[in-house]
Amino acid sequence: MENEIILYGHNTLRTLRVHWILNELSVPYQSVKVLPDSEYIKSDEYKKINYTGKIPSLKIDGIYLFESAAICLYLPERFGDKNIIPALGSIERAKLYQWCFYTMTELDAHTLYILSKHGGVLKERYGVSEVAVKTAKEGFETQITKAENELADGREFLMGDNFSVADILLGTCIESAIRLNAYVPLNIPSICIEYWERLKNREAFKMAFSLNTR
Ligand SMILES: N[C@@H](CCC(=O)N[C@@H](CS)C(=O)NCC(=O)O)C(=O)O
Fold first, then answer.
1. So what's the pLDDT on residue 1?
2. Tens digits of per-residue pLDDT, 56-104?
3. Which residues, 6+ apart, have CB-to-CB distance to 87 below 8 Å?
4. From the CA of 122, how far away is ligand 1's center (Å)?
5. In what helix (H) or strand (E) does residue 57 lie, and over which residues does it extend?
6. Whole-angstrom Cα distance, residue 82 to residue 114?
7. Per-residue model confidence as pLDDT tens digits over 163-209
8. Would you say 118 and 128 are in contact if contact means Cβ atoms under 8 Å apart?
9. Is residue 12 in contact with ligand 1, taking CB distance under 6 Å?
10. Ligand 1: which of 54, 116, 123, 172 to mutate, judged by most atoms within 8 Å of the beta carbon?
């Protein structure tokens, strides 16, 4: 069916993001359990869904979207309300973009993924590199202070009173840092860990977590 929504990807923090926003918005969808280390992800069939063989992907309106943050930002635009996505052109919308890009570049791609690839769970595949790990650890510990400072006034969410996609992205990055600690000790500010613990109490998170792992 052309109007069905299908999430491809399973059991990673990036796939959890898409389950989470879909559950926050109560959007009905199906999910296909594509795992990152599976043969299927490299298959010609999956290449038609996501050419570079990555998860998550989302089928919507008959086309396939990739990039977890882009998917998570689009869905509230389509199905949400002003509490979850600030108005286009507002300064709040600018701040949402700021926090989403910060999280995806400075934390997700630039430091945590490098740590994973060269010192964490993916090091056998990408090769151990002490220099990469040292630089990425220093980068993460410097960059996370931006979020720490923002949360220091005791706010519940990164954007203040309203939950947003920025919380999904930052929360899953904090979880990624916590998991990386088993390989590379990281200094994660306690205020960020407490914030993440609060986010995990959300019903949509619990549902998403269960769907993403079972
Ligand atoms: N920036 C992309 C990263 C996607 C990504 O790297 N996904 C991993 C799993 S979390 C993956 O598909 N790995 C399989 C591979 O690299 O072969 C996003 O946020 O969606």
1. 63
2. 999 999 999 999 999 999 999 999 887 899 999 999 999 999 999 999 9
3. 93
4. 12
5. strand 57-60
6. 35
7. 999 999 999 999 999 999 999 999 999 999 999 999 999 999 999 99
8. yes
9. yes
10. 54
Q: Of 41, 42, 108, nearest to 69 (Cα)?
A: 108
CB 63 within 8 A of CB 57: no
Distance in Å from the first CA to the final CA of the chain = 25
CA of 12 relative to ligand 1 center, distance in Å? 9
pLDDT score, position 28: 97
Q: Structurally, what CATH architecture does the domain formed by 91-203 represent? A: Up-down Bundle (1.20)
Query: CATH number of 6-80: 3.50.50.60, 3.40.50.300, 3.30.465.10, 3.40.30.10?
Result: 3.40.30.10
| 49, 61 Cβ separation under 8 angstroms | no
**Does 17 score more than 80 pLDDT?**
yes
pLDDT in tens, 147-157: 999 999 999 99
**Ligand 1 centre and the CA of 161: distance in Å?**
31
109 vs 199: CA distance, rounded Å: 22
The conformation of residue 5, written as its DSSP 8-state character, comes to: -
Domain boundary assignment for the chain = 6-80, 91-203
